[in-house]
Write a structure and sequence with these properties.
By secondary structure, the chain is mainly alpha-helical. The protein has five helices and no strands. It binds heme C.
C-alpha cells in the first residue's frame, strides 16, 4: 500500500514536470523588465504570459522561459508566431501581442533562480 502511494506521487511529479511551470510575476520582474523594455507593467507582463500559455503549447509543451537566451527568444518568437498563425490560418497573434509575448519571455528568462 505504502509503495503504491509513493508510485502515484512519483508519476504525478513526472507528469507535471513535462510542462514548464511558470512563475508568478512580481514587482521585481517589472523592474527588471523595464531595463530591457520601457513601460513594462505587471499587467503587460501578465498579458504576455497568458498569450504564451494559451497559444504556445499547440505543437509542443511550453518551454521554460529560462531555457533560451534573450538573443534566441528574439529570433524564436517571431518564427514561432509565424508557425502559429499559419497553423490557425489567421493572425491569432498580431504585432502588439507578439511584443507582449516576447517581453514576457525575455523578462522571465532572466529571473534569478530561487
Ligand atoms: C505550428 C506549430 C508550433 C507552434 C504553434 C509553436 N511552435 Fe515552437 N516549435 C515548433 C517546432 C516544429 C519546433 C522545432 C524546432 C523548429 O522547427 O524550429 C519548435 C521549437 C520551439 C522551441 C525550441 C527551439 C529550439 O531551438 O529548439 C521553442 C523555445 C519554441 N518552439 C517556442 C514557441 C513559442 C514561444 C510559441 C508561441 C508563440 C511556439 N513555440 C509555438 C512548432 C510550433
Amino acid at each position: 500500500m505504502k509503495s503504491r502511494t509513493i508510485l502515484v506521487f512519483l508519476s504525478l511529479a513526472l507528469m507535471s514536470a513535462c510542462n514548464a511551470k511558470l512563475m508568478d510575476l512580481t514587482q521585481t520582474d517589472v523592474e527588471r523588465g523595464n531595463t530591457n523594455y520601457k513601460g513594462v507593467t505587471l499587467e503587460s507582463l501578465n498579458e504576455g504570459k497568458n498569450l504564451y500559455q494559451q497559444n504556445c503549447s499547440e505543437c509542443h509543451n511550453l518551454k521554460r522561459p529560462s531555457s533560451e537566451t534573450i538573443e534566441k527568444w528574439n529570433k524564436l518568437v517571431p518564427a514561432m508566431v509565424k508557425k502559429l498563425n499559419a497553423k490557425m490560418e489567421k493572425e491569432v497573434i498580431d504585432g502588439r501581442k507578439q511584443d507582449l509575448l516576447l517581453q514576457y519571455l525575455v523578462t522571465a528568462s532572466t529571473a534569478p533562480k530561487k
